[in-house]
Amino acid sequence: EKMQKIADIRYAAALLQWDQETYMPKKGADFRSRQVATLSEFAHQKFTDKSLGDLIRTLSFSGELPEKERANVKLSLEDYERSTRLTPAFVREMAETVSESFNAWIRAREENNFTIFAPSLAKLVNLKRKEAELLGFKAHPYDALLNEFERGCTVELLDGIFNQLREPLNQLIKKIAASEQVDDSFLFQHFPKDEQWKFGMELLAEFGYDLEAGRQDISEHPFTVSFNNKDVRVTTRIDEFNFNNMTWSCIHEIGHALYEQGLPEEEYGLPLGEAASLGIHESQSRLWENNVGRSIAFWEYYYPRLKKYFPRQLGEIDLSQFYKAINKVQPSLIRTEADEVTYHFHVMIRYELEKKLIAGEIEVNDIRDYWNDQYLTYLGVQVPDDKSGCLQDVHWSHGSFGYFPTYSLGSFYAAQFFNKAQDVLPGLNNMISSGNLRVLLEWLRVNIHVHGRMFTSEELCRRICGEGLNTTYFMDYIHNKYGRIYVI
Amino acid sequence: EKMQKIADIRYAAALLQWDQETYMPKKGADFRSRQVATLSEFAHQKFTDKSLGDLIRTLSFSGELPEKERANVKLSLEDYERSTRLTPAFVREMAETVSESFNAWIRAREENNFTIFAPSLAKLVNLKRKEAELLGFKAHPYDALLNEFERGCTVELLDGIFNQLREPLNQLIKKIAASEQVDDSFLFQHFPKDEQWKFGMELLAEFGYDLEAGRQDISEHPFTVSFNNKDVRVTTRIDEFNFNNMTWSCIHEIGHALYEQGLPEEEYGLPLGEAASLGIHESQSRLWENNVGRSIAFWEYYYPRLKKYFPRQLGEIDLSQFYKAINKVQPSLIRTEADEVTYHFHVMIRYELEKKLIAGEIEVNDIRDYWNDQYLTYLGVQVPDDKSGCLQDVHWSHGSFGYFPTYSLGSFYAAQFFNKAQDVLPGLNNMISSGNLRVLLEWLRVNIHVHGRMFTSEELCRRICGEGLNTTYFMDYIHNKYGRIYVI
C-alpha cells in the first residue's frame, strides 16, 4: 500500500512531464519545474523513509512469502538501499536542474545553438558525477549510471561488446558502400501531415496497442510514458518531407507501449509491475521496429494499405523497391533516422562521450568539437549544425546518462529473441505477411511482459533462449538481410 | 516554502484532473482516481501537519510582519484550523468518491440515465453531510458547505436575497413573455466546428487572455483551471447547431481565466495568490460574459468580425437583430444556456435542492422527481430526459455542493462592479464599442485581481463601490436592458 502511494506520486510527476512536452503553455515552464521537483522530492522522501526501509527489511527476513512477493521484497530492498544513498536535497536539485535543462534544450534547438544548452547541461553533468559518487561503483564512475538503466551493466562489459562489433560492422558498411546503391528518394516526397497521422494511428491499432488504454500526441522528441498499464501514452513527430521520420519512431514507441500495456496490472506500484530493464524495453521497441517493421513479410501485408494513404507518392513504387528503400544503409547525422547497421556507431560515439564526460576526461564545452570529430571519423559525415549534431537527442536534458547503450543492447536482444520466436512459432513469417501480429505479441507477453522485473535481462534471456546475450544473432541477422539487399 | 510545496502537490492534482476531463484514455480512469486521491491526501496531510500549524500560530502572534504577510498568516491559520477538522482518511475517501462520481456522471450522461449516477452521488452526499458536521455550523448544515466557496455565506443570507428577487424576476419574465418575441432561429443554423473553434480562439486573444500562459481544449463541461498564474487553462465545448453554446461558455471561462492570470505571481502557494471567493470569481466571468459580452457596445465592434467567420449564416442579419437574439429571454432547460433573467431560477432550484439534500429532507433518489417538478413550477418547462435535467451539471460529481449560489452572487456583484466601472472610467462604452477592452481589464486587475484573498467579497465590494452587495444594481441593469429589448 505504501509502495503504491509512492507510485501514485511518481506517475503524477510523469503526467506533469508528459504535459510539459505536449501541451503546456510556454510561460508555465518555471512553475512546472518546481512542481515536478516537489513531487520527485516527496516520492523520494517517502520511499527512503526509515519506517518503510524497516518494513521491507523485516519482510525480507520472512521465509513464508510466495515467490512473487518474495521477489517484490527483494527488489524493493535493492531499490531502497540505492535510493537512500541520494539525499532529498540532491533529488530535488536534480529534478529542478532536469526541468531547467529540458527547457534550455528546447530553446537551444530553436536557436540551433549548443551554447544555449551548455550551462544547464554542465550543471547536470556535475550532478551526475556526484550521483555516481553517491551511488558508488567499483571500476568506473559511469558504471554507477549504466546500472540505473541496466542492472549489472558496466564499462567493461560494453567495451567488450562494442570492441568486438566495431570492426565487423565497419567492414559490412564498407561492403555496402561499394555495392550498387538503393534509391530511396521517393520517401522524401511530400507526405501530408494529416495522412501521416492517420497512417500512424492505424499502425498503433494494427500492432495491438490498446487505444482505449493510451493515446498518441505530438512532441518534439517521440517518447512513451506510462501512468499505469491502462494509460500508456506515445508521442510522435511528423516531417512532411520524410516518410521515415514518423513511421519508424511510431513503430518504435509502439514496441515500448506494448510492453507497458502488458505489465501485470495487479503489480501496480511494485517492482514486478515494472519493466525488466531498459535494455529489455529497447529489445521490444527494436524488435517491432526492425525485425518486424522493416521486414519484407510485414510489408507484403501492409504495403497495399500504405499505398491507399499515399497513392500519388507510392503508386508507381513496387514492394521490392519500397523494402529496399526503407532498409537503405547510409552513414548519416541523426541517430533516430539511422539504419540498423550504422545505428550502432551513433550509440558507440555517445557511449564513449558519456564515459569520458562522467570520468571528467572531457567537459561540456568540448562536446560539440568531440561530437563533430567522432562523426567524421566513424561515419564519415560532416556535422553542419548543432541540431543535426550534439543537440539532436533529448536524453541528456532529462539527465539520462548511460541510457544510449541500452539501445544497442536492445537491438542485440531483439535479434536473439526474434530468432527464438521464429524457432518456436512455426509459420511466424507467414503470420506476419498475412497481417497477424497477435501471435508474436502473445509470445512476448507470456515470455517477457507478464514477468515485470521478476528476472534480470540476463536471466530472462536464458529462460527464453537457453543462453545469455549473444551478439552473433544480431550479426547473422544483418549479414543475411543486408547481404541480400545489397547482393554482397 | 512549506505552503508553496503543498501548492505544488495541489496543482499537480489539478493537472491530473484537467487531463482526466480532456485527454485521458477511458481505461485510465480507475488508476487516475487513486492517483488524484493520493495527491489530495498528501497535500492535506502536509497542510494539517502540527508543525506547520505551530509555525503559522507562532507567526500569527508576531506583530512585526508587513501587511501582506500578516494577511497570509491570518488566512493560513483560518484554512489550517478548518482543514484540521477533516481527517486524512476522510479527505482520501472524498477524493476517491469524487473521481468515481465523475466517471459515473460521464457514463450516466452517455446513457442519459440518472440512476447510473445515483449510487456514487448518494455516497458523495453522505460524505458532504459528514463534512458539514466535521466543519461545524451554527444554523444550517448547508452553511458549512456554502462557506467553502464563499466565506460567511449562509442560508439566512441567501434566503433573504432570493426571496427578495424571486417575485420581481418572475414579474419581469411574465412581462417579457407577453411582449413581442425575439427571433433567434438564425443562431441555430449550422456553425461548423472548425470556424467556431477559431472564433473562440480569437475571443480569447481579444479579451486579453495570454495564450502563452494558457491554452484552450475541449471537454464535456467547460471549465477553467489554474496551475499558477502562468498556466491558466480553459476548456470549451462546441455544438455545431447552436451558436450560443460555445460563445458564452468561452467568454465566461475567459472571465475566470483573466482573474487567475491576474493573481499576483509572487504570492504563489499563499492565500494572497488565490481568488477572493467563488462569488468574486463568478463576478469576473459574468461581467465579461454578460455586462460586456452581451452588450450592444461590444458587438458594434465585434459583429463585423464575427460575420467574417460565418458570412453565410449571419450575412443577412443586422446588428440589432443579432443583439436581440443573443439576449432572448425564454425559460429553458439548461442552466449554462439560460439568459440573464431566467438564469437565476436555475440557481434557485439547485440551491433549494442542495439545501434539502444536505439537511436530509430529500434523498438522492428523489432528485429527478424534485428537479422535474421544480422546473415545471418555476420555469414552466417539462424536462424530457435526465441529460436536460438533473444530469446537466458537472458540479455534484465534483463534490461541489454550495457552489451554484455563487453564480447568482457573481451576477449581482458583476452588475454592481460594472456600474461602478462606468462611473469611474469615462467613455467606457465607447472604448468597448471601439474594441478596447484593456482599460476595463486593467481596472479589474488593479481593483480586484492583484489583491488575491486580501479582502473578503464584502470588503472588496465596499472598497470598490463604497457599499456592500446591493442587488438593486442587477435589477436596474436587467430592467433597463430588457425593458428596451422587449419594449416594456
Class derived from helix and strand content of chain A: mainly alpha
Query: Which chains have the largest interface?
Result: A-B, 39 and 39 residues
Largest sheet of chain A: 3 strands, mixed
Please mark out the parts of chain A with pLDDT under 50 across 5 or more consecutive residues, or reply none.
none
Verbal overview:
- 2 copies of one chain form a homodimer.
- With 488 residues, chain A is an all-alpha fold.
- The first copy, chain A, is 64% helix and 3% strand.
- Chain A contains 21 helices and 3 strands.
- In chain A, β2 and β3 (231-236) form a beta hairpin.
- In chain A, α12 crosses α14 (319-326) and α15 runs antiparallel to α16 (367-379).
- The longest helix of chain A has 24 residues, at 88-111.
- The A-B interface holds A 4-5, 8-9, 11-13, 15-16, 19, 23-28, 30-32, 34-35, 37-39, 41-42, 210-215, 217, 227-228, 230-231, 233, 268 and B 4-5, 8-9, 11-13, 15-16, 19, 23-28, 30-32, 34-35, 37-39, 41-42, 210-215, 217, 227-228, 230-231, 233, 268.
Keyphrases for this structure?
homodimer, 488 residues, mainly alpha, three-stranded mixed sheet, 21 helices, 3% strand, globular
